Amino acid sequence: MSPPRAGKVVERADVVAHFRDGMRVMFGGFMGVGTPAGLVDALMRSGVGQLTLIGNDTAFPETGVGPLISVGQAARVIVSHIGTNPVTGRKMIAGELDVELIPQGTLAERVRCGGAGLGGVLTPTGVGTVVEAGKSKLVLDGREYLLELPLRADVAILKARKADRAGNLVYERAARNFNPLMAMAADLVIVEADELVDTGDIDPDQVMTPAALVDLIVVAAKE
Amino acid sequence: MSPPRAGKVVERADVVAHFRDGMRVMFGGFMGVGTPAGLVDALMRSGVGQLTLIGNDTAFPETGVGPLISVGQAARVIVSHIGTNPVTGRKMIAGELDVELIPQGTLAERVRCGGAGLGGVLTPTGVGTVVEAGKSKLVLDGREYLLELPLRADVAILKARKADRAGNLVYERAARNFNPLMAMAADLVIVEADELVDTGDIDPDQVMTPAALVDLIVVAAKE
Amino acid sequence: MNAKERIARRIGREFRSGHVVNLGIGLPTLVPRYLPEGIDITLQSENGFLGLGPLVGEPRPGVVNAGGQPCGLISGAAFFDSAMSFALIRGGHVDITVLGGLQVDEEGSLANWMVPGKMVPGMGGAMDLVTGARKVIVAMEHCTRDGEPRLVERCSLPLTARARVSMVVTELAVFTISHGEFVLQELAPDVAVDELRRKTQARFLVSPDLRAMPL
Amino acid sequence: MNAKERIARRIGREFRSGHVVNLGIGLPTLVPRYLPEGIDITLQSENGFLGLGPLVGEPRPGVVNAGGQPCGLISGAAFFDSAMSFALIRGGHVDITVLGGLQVDEEGSLANWMVPGKMVPGMGGAMDLVTGARKVIVAMEHCTRDGEPRLVERCSLPLTARARVSMVVTELAVFTISHGEFVLQELAPDVAVDELRRKTQARFLVSPDLRAMPL
Predict the structure, then answer these.
(1) Is A76 a domain residue?
(2) Using one digit for the tens of pLDDT, what is the confidence trace for A135-189?
(3) Domain count across chain D
(4) What confidence tens digit (pLDDT) does each residue in D2-58 have?
């Protein structure tokens, strides 16, 4: 259930009240492209800590979710890649940040399972590698698979090109990436949209995330 | 790998050469909406028999894949529903047609697994029902799930609103349904499009099935 | 007011604005006609969209409900494929589903998709809906045409899903189900509890807050 | 012609028109520069699209490659989400992937994502690519900067995927791998087999059809 439509569009300052210490936060984006900079900023202003960040990568120290890691608000990241952000690596080695690495396709499927009510998925990715550790392995038709389990979060912060007032979303080019999957997999879904349009202005065939999944909409600050 | 782009657009008569007795055929559509009538017709003209039809439902005797069942070309159907086509029921009772019923969401996931290189998926749907028969059951976090396995086909016949010459597809309204999933899960993918446009005429954000998945394109006959 | 209208009207009172609702074929499709004033819900259609509305004007290509019939769209509707449609259903994104029933039992199990030897239409999306929707309401007449009770101790017909029904609304009464027991919450004004017990094979508790079913 | 160009040029000959190809970062991204005349491939980018092309003119919003750098699009490109991107990769819809390597062993296993204690960037999409692409080509210089062989009997570094590499192209030679054995298929004109054996820790067979590696 989402709040009534009229109430979804809020000021950026209003979302801060939804953040808590220790939350699991899913963030859209790939190297920061498709990550909502304004909502990352809101998380920083909120001052909450001990966050678990779930997304593709930790981008760069100054982009994507990088700043949250730089200032020490994250206790844990669940990502496929940290190589572009040396701060993540340094904090990991210093024992200040727990890093769980997941193959990118497996991360996508685990988030999808979390949003789709599935108990898990069997993937061949990671068989025979360190990714196997602690996981069930099944053999089907002579091929080995790992059982990968669902991932969910308390809140998802997403970036859209366009939102209508009801919450229907359109993403732009490669900024789509994990955003539509995470819209399904979090208890509270907050979107930062570059443009807000009236409900009905987006063709129903072109909606990439339906309004029913979106709880709060913030319009991005003009650059 | 797809044939070179220039070669994808063919006449309806040309697809007949690809049909064989005993093929597994996936068909898009829901009660016939989103089923390519011209490609069903081509299958009928080909005269091939002993087909396994995989799709949502057997529609009505005169629509969707109904005609293929009426004339006896199908030996088996794997669907979620046969209630709207009394011919399916009669042939099933007479022992002329093997019917495998699958919950609709499970059918969608099984086709998706087949196209996505996944070994299977765990779903709570069907637990405690006849759907359990012959399936592995896993308990995770105290909840029971059935392990559902991938489905693939030799050929998929799809219906699109629009195709470009490279094979990028756009579906219309609820005629989308299983079509994009099946485009991933068959060795040969044949599309019937209402309209053919030049490559580049569809905005890359609005493509619903990318060209690389499509082998052959037939333009639908005008009504 | 006939039995079906009575049931549909009562179920309409369960909805809140913002609810995402999937309605089964038959009786459940009557519910939107009886929504209380000011309640704004979104209907999901398992053939792949949110924002189902009544047909207005001419049918449009591909705009059909899950029964294959032409329908309309509300402003802000959105289409998607079948995997997404059932991800929404199974993933708990549908707040309420209302379905017809053949039998409901004390455990909250529902049978509504087949009668062996008679009716084998296939489960379609029903098993996913009953398994995945946050709240499952069964809308059915209290007894069969032959007077057989439909609220039973244990379903004799093949199940659609086990232990997922949370509410049953008939023309005589409203029951909730929790911890393996039917609890009578509301009784129609023209019905006595004794009569209800005769027409109900299942055992049921009477809520200490028993109310009159609003008609 | 330097080592990298030699490798990229040779790999370009593996492509046929219509192939869907994913190129890893580094050396593999050079391959499209050396495609033979008339060969028309489609590049997949794991951040969510098909139809990657060189940047022409100004960068456009969201049009970036998997390294986060601005890029271009070919006519007929298509964008999708990350689940679809990896469904394509894992599902066998990518005909060829070309990746850099740290080590490849006789079983066809590849190590290219981490060096314990030194480099732990994360596997990103590499494990899915090596597991799912129909043909896996490893493009690497034959030895490390310190002269250590990279074709080894058994990888000592953590694996990216087991037994999935089908071809290795270095500046010295082209090997295929089948049934747990490297087979030398082509040798650069300036290299003798003896020299190659000294620089290769793995055992390898010499194909009866051994050819000169085209430069």
Answers:
(1) yes
(2) 999 999 999 999 999 999 999 999 999 999 999 999 999 999 999 999 999 999 9
(3) 1
(4) 999 999 999 999 999 999 999 998 899 999 999 999 999 999 999 999 999 999 999
Domain that holds residue D72: 3-212
User: Is residue A11 a contact partner of residue A218, using CB atoms and an 8 Å limit?
Assistant: yes
Tokens of B82: 């046969």
Report yes or no on A3 lying in a domain. Answer: no
Other Cβ atoms within 10 Å of B38 Cβ, number: 17
Nearest residue on chain C to A180, alpha-carbon basis? C84
Task: Give the residue numbers of D marked as catalytic.
Answer: 46
Is B133 a domain residue? no
Angle at the Cα of D150 from the Cα atoms of D144 and D155, rounded to 5 degrees:
130
The pLDDT tens digits of the residues spanning C142-201 come to 999 999 999 999 999 999 999 999 999 999 999 999 999 999 999 999 899 999 999 999
Q: Is residue A142 part of a domain?
A: no
Residues from chain A that touch D86, judged by Cβ atoms under 8 A, are 104-105, 108-109
How do strand C42-45 and strand C49-53 relate by DSSP bridges? antiparallel
The residue segments making up the domain with residue A173 are 12-117+151-219
Radius of gyration of chain D (CA): 17
What per-residue confidence (pLDDT) applies to D117?
87
Q: What part of D 30-69 touches B (C-beta under 8 Å)? A: 40, 42, 44, 49-51
Alpha carbon separation from D168 to A115, D138, D179 (Å, rounded): 40, 5, 15
- Please tell me the distance in Å from D197's CA to the nearest CA on chain A: 28
Chain B CB contacts of A143 below 8 Å: 119
Reported as half-sphere exposure (CB side, CA atoms, 13 A), residue D56 has a value of 7
CB contact under 8 A, A173 and B204: yes
Report d(CA C23, CA C8) in Å as an integer. 11
pLDDT band at B5 (very low <50, low <70, confident <90, very high): very low
Q: What is the CATH number of the domain that holds C207?
A: 3.40.1080.10
Judged by CB atoms closer than 8 Å, whether chains meet at D83 and A56 is answered as no
Number of domains observed in the structure of chain B? 1
CATH number of the domain encompassing residue B186: 3.40.1080.10
ipTM: 0.97
| Helix or strand holding residue D84 (H, E) | helix D82-90
Per residue in D78-108, pLDDT (tens digit) is 999 999 999 999 999 999 999 999 999 999 9
Of B3, B5, B117, the CB nearest to D91: B117
Neighbours of chain A (3+ CB pairs under 8 A): B, C, D
Q: In chain B, which residues have their Cβ closer than 8 Å to the Cβ of A118? A: 109, 121-123, 145
Exposed e or buried b for every residue in D8-38, given b needs 16+ CB within 10 A?
A: bbbbbebbebbbbbbbbeebbbbbbeebeee
